Amino acid sequence: MRQVLAAVLLLLLLRSGTRGGEALNACGRPRMLNRMVGGQNALEGEWPWQVSIQRNGSHFCGGSLITDRWVLTAAHCFSNTSETSLYQVLLGVLQLARPGPHAVYARVKRVESNPKYQGMASSADVALVELEAPVTFTNYILPVCVPDPSVVFESGMKCWVTGWGTPSEQDSLPKPRTLQKLAVPIISTPKCNLLYSKDAESGFQPRTIKDDMLCAGFAEGKRDACKGDSGGPLVCLVGQVWLQAGVISWGEGCARRNRPGVYIRLTSHHDWIHRIIPELQFQRAGPGSAQKRDPRTRQPLGRNSARYPAA
Ligand SMILES: *[C@@H]1O[C@H](CO)[C@@H](O)[C@H](O)[C@H]1NC(C)=O
Ligand SMILES: *[C@@H]1O[C@H](CO)[C@@H](O)[C@H](O)[C@H]1NC(C)=O
């Protein structure tokens, strides 16, 4: 039923066409403005910065387009950053099993992993992927904004996470593998540390939420990112513009009670990102875009989605 409903909405969207007049290179402004609030399948053009990073034709991590030639993702997605010829980035896609006419495959020129990254669930789990050639922006392929370090993502703020990860710790996303979206509130670091210290399971060290990490999700579990979502974006609407607050990094299992999703804060890695991409413009919140909470907050939508590489 859900697929049928999504397909119908998608047709309506395509018929409604695009809105003109927006700067060609503006970040964080999807051109397809309709949203399926209350649903879980994403819509065509809704998250135009979402990419699939693939190896030998298989999706293994998410990522986000931040300029016409750079994709942001997680460092743990790559065991060997020199094997660029094995990787491919798929852009402009809603359904992985049916990429469709808006899909673009891009070759990878270089992978820069943050040198401070030290393995699973540690700090600095961010990587930048440079494409061989710049991509052309379309209604389905647009960059997200990278926030200036002055931007604060307050606890309680409702943000969104997207990905093609698994719908639970065991299952895989059923065909046609439609991009999933989930609204998640930001959880403060002290609260997140408290949650992660509860009910420590044998086999798991109590985890510490480091300064460059950001928690988002639900203490009760049930809705979260999961396997294969790794590297994908956590984005928040600030004023009129979507800013990427975090990169999907880790969690103890997926959607478990007291184990919300943990993301890497982009603002903590501003200097490193700036060093690799000097031309990137960082987005300030700005006076016109007062950091208000979305009035729809606390109507979270959901599904389990995930984080470690799918492969
Ligand atoms: C790549 O995929 C093909 C077909 O799916 C498979 O036969 C081949 O073994 C794979 N190669 C690697 C290196 O995984
Ligand atoms: C990484 O990949 C490169 C290119 O394929 C290869 O030359 C190198 O030996 C690999 N390094 C490791 C540690 O596997």
TrEMBL record:
GO cellular component, one term: plasma membrane
Region of interest: Disordered: 284-311
EC number(s) per entry: 3.4.21.59
Keyword Signal: yes
Reactions this protein catalyses: Preferential cleavage: Arg-|-Xaa, Lys-|-Xaa, but with more restricted specificity than trypsin
Signal peptide: 1-20
Segments forming domain Peptidase S1: 36-278
Keyword line: Disulfide bond, Hydrolase, Protease, Serine protease, Signal
Broad EC category: hydrolase
Matches recorded under Pfam families: Trypsin
Gene3D superfamilies with a match to the protein in the record: Trypsin-like serine proteases
One of the GO BP terms on file: proteolysis
GO molecular function, one term: serine-type endopeptidase activity
InterPro entries listed in its UniProt record: Peptidase_S1_PA, Peptidase_S1_PA_chymotrypsin, Peptidase_S1A, Trypsin_dom, TRYPSIN_HIS, TRYPSIN_SER
Protein function: Tryptase is the major neutral protease present in mast cells and is secreted upon the coupled activation-degranulation response of this cell type.
Quaternary organization: Homotetramer.
This protein's name: tryptase
Organism: Bos taurus
Lineage: Eukaryota, Metazoa, Chordata, Craniata, Vertebrata
